[in-house]
Amino acid sequence: MSGESFSWHEFLGRWQEEWIPREDEDDGQTVVPQGRPGATEAAIVAAEERLGRRLPPSYRAFLAVSNGWHVDETAGVYQLGGAEDIDWFQDPHGMTQLYQENLGDDPREEDVLLAGMWRRGLRLETDSDMSHALLDPGDSDQDGEWALYVYQGWSGELPRRYVSFRAYMEAKYRGFQADRAGRPGFVNATTRIQDAQVDEGRLLALRGRYEEALPLLEEAMSFGRPRSATLLNQLRQLLTPRNAQGYGNLVADTRYLPEILPVEAMTPAHGAWRPGGDDHWLRMMAARGADRETAETVLSAMRDGTHRYAPPGPWGRAVAEARESARWGATDAAWRVLREALALWDAPGPLLIAPIGLLADPVLGPLITAERGREILATPRAGETGPAPEPVPDLDPPGLTWLTEPAANGQQLDGYRCVWVEGVDPARLPALIGEEGAELSAPAHRRMMPWRAPDPHEREGLELWEDRAVVSVGRTAEAWAFAFDGHSRRHLDKRFLSPASAASSYGRAVVVWRDPGRSSPRRHPAAFHLSVAEQGEELYAFTVRGTEIQRSGVIPEALDPARLFRPQDSETSRELRLLEAMHTELGLSLPRFAVTQGRLNTFTTRSWTRAPRAGEGFAYALFVRHRP
Length: 628
What we know:
Elements: H1 8-18, H2 41-51, H3 57-65, E1 69-70, E2 77-80, E3 87-88, H4 95-101, H5 109-120, E4 122-123, E5 125-128, E6 131-140, E7 146-152, E8 160-162, H6 165-180, H7 189-206, H8 210-222, H9 228-239, H10 257-264, H11 266-269, H12 277-287, H13 292-304, H14 313-326, H15 331-341, H16 370-377, E9 416-422, H17 429-433, E10 444-445, E11 468-475, E12 480-485, H18 500-503, E13 509-515, E14 527-534, E15 537-545, E16 548-553, H19 561-564, H20 571-586, H21 592-596, E17 599-607
Antiparallel strand pairs: 1-2, 2-5, 3-4, 4-6, 6-7, 7-8, 9-12, 9-13, 10-17, 11-12, 11-17, 13-14, 14-15, 15-16
Helix pairs in contact: 4-5, 7-8, 8-9, 9-16, 14-15
């Protein structure tokens, strides 16, 4: 750290000029944050000779200007002593042993430094609330600065580290500013500079220059300037779309409520809100000025997936068009619609700088990855101009081979099954292969869907042999409707009844099922099934179990299981070859992002297993583990 561009005279003088008492201080008992006159060089040298060490540069320069300082904290360190007051800490409370015992076998360098700091530290405070300000000569940088640790003994927390004494004092000055930011009439040169930075950061953000806006808004927020946190949190929200941010009283303004309140409701709606449950969140929103009934309605819509982000104007029309594409799985096409319309987004008021309401839409929200969030922020909008960013790549690969690859969370699809129907509106699938009365549900995330359809014993009126699947519904890029079950825990046995014929009333239908087998591959090997039907009649089908192949109908050469399932190949190689052939020969695909991370409508199918025939046995075992 270089001190050439920093003046302690100017810094401490400005602090002194701007100082006003805290709101919690009694009138007439004002304590001015002023130290003593600066220490002489002789006094500083005498202290160094007493200590046996030359003091670090920023602390030494500070003493020459002010030989001590009132820190003005409500709890913690109150007063920093002068050159004659400082002395080695020498660990009077035995902290070294406690910290060394917790180092472990492979400790981090910073943990080793902290454990040794207690005996090396130079104590600066002369008045405190069970707190210490310690400069550590063993934790220094290339400029000779010593790290400063503040330990609050009553907090139960680790000491807070500052890279130098100057960094500590600058943080205390920012805290002084932030503590008084809401006081009427608290206006000075610093507040005017920081408010100007907020204005500049807002304009830069709207022009797509968010990387320049971030440090301006971050600094202004550290000074507690109004508007800075609200603007900054919108940028942070889009840079890390799944991380919650707070927007204070913005929910009370009807201009911003349609964008802000649903975003605030994302955390409790997704089950991550624990302390106090919904009522605590609703009371918190009410305290910020939101109508409780409105908050309840928004939270309910967010939880059941019926919320819709519906801004006005051209941007709103683009949002509706994109949702219609995304709800059937065309997420890349939906994102392209949004991308083209981003410049049309208009802020409903000066405190909104990005369309963060997109994140709360159950269908469109999942499309906003961190990369796309950056693209939104890099796009000029709300009437501002600037260069457009480079478009981020599409997320969906062609074809089906991605089914063999690990998902974004590292987990691989185990068993899966799917029905494709050519040229049919996906909304018709429940009527073709759904259970009686089946209807499309609200969009649901894959992890929020049941891991399997309810077991037969869990639903009245179902036979124990039935195998009904909860499937996600969409449309492929080649205009096939699909119903996909990526949570299959059932096994492909000889009573399997392909839904291909029922699905093909209006056109070709294809069914595929991958059964990974069981823990005993010799008795229950992995199995693959493919069946194709048209106009209610099965054209051909095959099932492969281990080395056994069952077939029917005239199978095209490209799909011949004898060619695709060579015994010498691995299961993955055979699966890849089948999926590639299905894409090439039949034109089938699945949208990876929509199936694994998006929100798709669902319904429950009819049973994929036929009833036992005369003479066939059937057993159903249910294991229930009771905790002692």
